[in-house]
Amino acid sequence: MTITDxxxxxxxxxxxxxxxxxVTFDNIFAVHxxxxxxxxxxLFVAMPSRRDDSGAFRDIVHPITSEARQQIESQxxxxxxxxxxxxxxxxx
Length: 92
Description:
Blueprint: E1 3-11, E2 17-25, E3 29-38, E4 43-46, E5 49-51, E6 57-59, H1 66-89
Antiparallel strand pairs: 1-2, 2-3, 3-4, 5-6
């Protein structure tokens, strides 16, 4: 599967949640509500999740391998940084 589009839906300047993105794979499958979160040491990507009956959050979709997770995360963070840069250069 190849990422064919990444849309940065929101950039949030304050708090730990920094943004929300949508990713399209192979121009046929979209995943919405992927979060860009500021962790203790770096930004990371959190997949869409929901709270289960016990109160724990469970991912609705997620990569199966660590290689796929790393590839998806790096592309999302690159797109997020490009969009942040573009928005900071655009006069309000």
